[in-house]
Each structure stands twice: as C-alpha cells, then as structure tokens.
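INPUT
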Amino acid sequence: MELNNSKIKIKAKNLNVFYGKKQALFNINLDINQKEVTALIGPSGCGKSTFIRCINRMNDVIDICKVEGSVEIDGAEINEKNVDVVTLREKVGMVFQKPNPFPKSIYDNIAYGPIIHGAAENKDQMDNIVETSLKKAALWDEVKDRLNEPGTSLSGGQQQRLCIARALSVNPEVILMDEPCSALDPIATAKIEELIDDLKKSYTIVIVTHSMAQAVRVSQKTGFFHLGKIIEVDSTEKIFKNPANKMTQDYITGRFG
Amino acid sequence: MTKEQRLKKRYRAEKRFKMYGLISVSLAVIFVLILVQNIFSKGSSAFSRTMIEVEVNYDSSLLELDSPINQNSLKDADFYDLAVESLLKIYPAKDSKEERQILRLFSPDYEFEIKDFLIKNPNKIDQVVPVKITASDDIDQLNKGNFPRDLPEDRRRVSNYQLNIYDNLVEKEKINKKFNNYLFTKGDSRDPELAGIGGSLMGSFFTIIICLVLSFPIAIMASIYLEEFAPKNKITDFIEININNLAAVPSIVYGLLGLGILLSVMEFPRSTPLVAGITLSLMTLPRIIIPCRASLKAVPPSIREAALSVGASKFQTVFHHVVPLAMPGTLSGTIIGLAQALGETAPLILIGMVAFVVDIPSSPVDPSASLPVQVYLWSEQAERGFVEKTSATIMMLLGFLIVMNFIAVYLRQKFEKKWN
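OUTPUT
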C-alpha cells in the first residue's frame, strides 16, 4: 500500500477540544486519505469519538464543548463561523455506535435526508434513491418487500445497515463510523465489515473501533489515540506488524487498554 | 449472626415490606370506595324527579284571550287563574290557608308547566287533560324517602294536611317519578327541584376551552424553546426554578392575580368564563410546561444525532423528530393540567364566579357558574334537595375528570404504539 500516492481528503491541524475546563484532544494532526478506510483505535475515553465528531461538527450540539484548531476537507476549513453545518453534514455522513433508526418506516428512514435537502423532485426519483441507498448498504434484498414496516422492527445488524443506507442517501463524500459494530453479533459485524470494504471504493471512511482485528480487516491506515493525544499514525500493516512506538505495541498486543 | 439467621432476617424484611404495601393499597382503595359510595348514595336520587298528575281544565274563558287561539296568543296568556283552579281541585280545602298548603305541594313553576303543555298540544283547549307537574322539593324528598314522617308536626316541613293529600295522591297513583332532565337543562335556582347544572356545565365548558386555547400553545412553545433552543445559563436556570415554583403556588393566589389585574385594572366582565379561563390558564401553564419538558427530555439523544447527522437543521430535528416523539407525554400532561383546572374552585370564587346566576351562559362573556363552584354554592344550602344535587354535581365533575384522564392514557398508549 503506497500512502504517498493517495490524495488527502481530510486534514486536521493542531486540533484541541475542551469539554468545559477538561481538555479532551491535544494538538491532533491527522491526514485522512480519500477513498480509503482509516481506523482509529485506542482505549476508552482517549478521544477517538471526539475526534470524528469534529469532522462533521457534531460537537456543536454539546454546549460545553469548545473546538480549537483546524479541520480541512478538500482544503476548505470547516471550523469557521460562516460554514453551514447542514451542507457540511450532507457531505460528511455519520453512523453511530448504537443503531438509531428513526421510529418511522424503513422507506421514511432513508427518504428523510433527501426530503430535507430537496434531492428528489418526484416519487419515482425518491423510490430510486431509497432503492440505491439500500442496495449500497446491502439491505435491499432483505427489506424490499416490507419498506413500510417500522425501521425499529429490524434486527440490530439490519438496523445498523439501515443507518448506513440513511447516511448514504444524501450522497456524502465521507462516512464517519463511531464503533458501528460494538452492539452487534459477529455475523452482523462480518456483514458490516464486508459492506465497509465495498463502500471504500466510492467513499472516504473513518471508523472508530475497539476491535484490533476489525481495524486490521477493514482499514488501510490506522491511528492510535491515547489520553487525547495521537501516538502513532501509519499504514495498518505497519502499525500492527511493526509499530514504531512502545505504547502502540503494548496496546495492540493487549498489555493495556 | 449466622448466615442462616441473616437469610431469614432478609426474608422477613421483604415480607414485612410487602405487607406494608398491601395495607396502604387497601386503605387507599377503602377510602375511595367510601367516598364513591357516599356520593352515589346521596346523589343518585337527584337524577329522578317526583311528578304529580293533575287534571287540568284548559278553560279558554279563564285565559282572557282577546285574539283567536294560536301559539302566539297562548304564549302571552296568563295561566295563573286556570292553573290555581285546577290544582286546588286535587283535594278539598276549607280555608285559604289550606289552599296555600295545596299550592305548596307543587314547584313554583306549575303555572309555566301547565302553559307549556298547552302550547305543545294546542288542540287540548277547552278539555280536561291529565298533566304531570313537578312536585315541590318537600314532596320530592318525602317521595324519595328522605324525610322522616314520624317527627312531630312542628318539626317537619310537611304539615299533617299535606301528608294526608300526599297519601291520598299516592293511593290514587297520581304520584310518580321521572328522569330529572331539569338537572341538566336548567340553571341555578332558589328552589332545589328547579335547580340544574346546565349553567355551570356551560360555564365550565367555556372556561376549559379558553384555558386550553391559551395555555396549550404557550406551554408547548415555552417548553420546546427552553428544552431545545435556550442556552443553558443562569437566566434559563432561574426561569426553570421559577416555573417549578409557580406550579406549586396555591391556586387562590392566581385568583387574587385575576381579581387584581383582570378585573380591577383591565376591567374584564366579572363572573365570566373569559376571566376564569385566563386566570386558570395562568395557573395551568407551569403545570403543563413541566410534563412537556420532561417528555421532550425523554426523547433519546440518539434520535437527535441521527437527524443532525443527515444534515437536518436544529429546527428540523426538533419539529420533525423530537416533538412528534414527545407528543404522547405532552398531550397527557396537557389533559391532566386541564383536568386540574376543571376542578379548581378557589381562584374562581375570587373572580366572582360565586354569583347566583340563573341564566345559562351563551358565550364566554356572560356571567356564569362553574361545576366546582356550583358544588360549593349548593353545599351551603339547607334544603335537602340541594344535598342530593351537590352530590350529583360532584358525580358529574368526577365523571368528567375520569373521562379526561382516560383520554390522556388512551392518547399516550395510542401514540406510543405507533412509534414502536
């Protein structure tokens, strides 16, 4: 894997995040390559989730959270006041730790994003968007006959794929995944991982995971976080085979965390 | 202590606690049953009315009609002489004192009841027709068995002479009972047999509608703003504390506010559902805001994140997802707040709704009574007829409260099912 040939999609520079007086991220510098899966690993509370929530500015929702520094997507700064978060989040989708479908039908779950962005002009176009999104999320065959059933009636793994389909429905460029498999069984996890592998052809994916094996399986690049600092970033192969830092070595071999 | 002893002690503690719970639940049930039994035993007789059948001679010469007989001329006619003559025939009277006693067997409205019958049946003119006339409260209560007959005459409201007439009428099967429609169609009256809750029902209805129209939108908007949009700082903390305190303010204080501001400064019409509705909505506002905020808070944050992450704005997130999910709690909170307002008495007394109002209000700016105040007014009256009417009104009020609470439960369950 040649890192240098890849185009940089997201560039975090000197990123500091504070929750009230407590600092959660310290001077994070991280480049995320286009159409590649970047995994973020590290012990609980190390700031991985906080970091990816900076990429679509979900931290804005938290009153006491203050973000300093710069995050650039395609060279454009997103942390400025005049950046419209709605447009940003259209471009940067997110999948959460626990599947969180809307308590609406499967169809409405997917259609919601396109509706608020005015992406479809008529019912046919909307049907089309719903179908392609579900197909991309490898869920279409399972739910095509029951699109009007509530999204919450699906199994956990299906719900998570529904959430991925929902994120895809607005045609994002980047997909952030915050431990998308932590609430799923191994079979559902395998399906999601397969899906991630497929999605990386068209999307830039950042995934936070607690499973080292998962990072190895799905990602091309891995960043190791510890206590709000980024310890080591490199190709996944290098991180897991021959980490430069002792702490990374200890973590991936299960000596702490 | 050995392990076994500790185990036994633990079991005993659990058993003891279960027993305490059982005792408190049964005490509560017993008290409710006593209350309901008491109200029903006193109030159920108010739903029937004693009628005395009288042969009325519709003698047109007594009506002194100048124009040909039709419904209009009958409406203007004076039926007093005709009525008195027919009523006095039910029993022989030897002097005017006894004649007065005979007339007192009937409700003071006998003249109009006789008149109304002819207006409805104009072909009965110059005929002798049996007409059922409402009995006075004394005879009504006697017939319902609420008056002890074995007291000495000077301690009874019904004289021996009247008792004789009553027994005679019972023998001739001229006394019967019918459903008391007056209870629902008439306004207040000094005569218990003619008093009804029609006026207070309408008054309460207008009051609650005004209260709903004012408090529901304001409370919803306030809770959505405070819960979803307002920055969390000292000012909003202060507002929150004040809302919680306002919900605990005694209701009579709101009555004083209504009296001081609405009646004295703004000079709104006294004793009207308008003022009552505004006053009660002030009282209800914090009581609706608190459950509304609680149900908004109960919507899981993951739903908000889901909406935000597909690019919904804050406004869209709140109104497309959070508010619909919070609706069941919001609606039931509103209905329970309104139910409290419906049963509120103290503030209404202060804004003059205790006035004696005979007419049924036709708009919210007419003077009116309301159900709880009607209970208060009648409970002060000495006549036995008002005692049963008081209980009947309480039954109606409780009925409305139960219905409203059921609606609240139903809405909560219906909407929650839809989301799961």
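end of record. The two ends of chain A are 28 Å apart (CA to CA).
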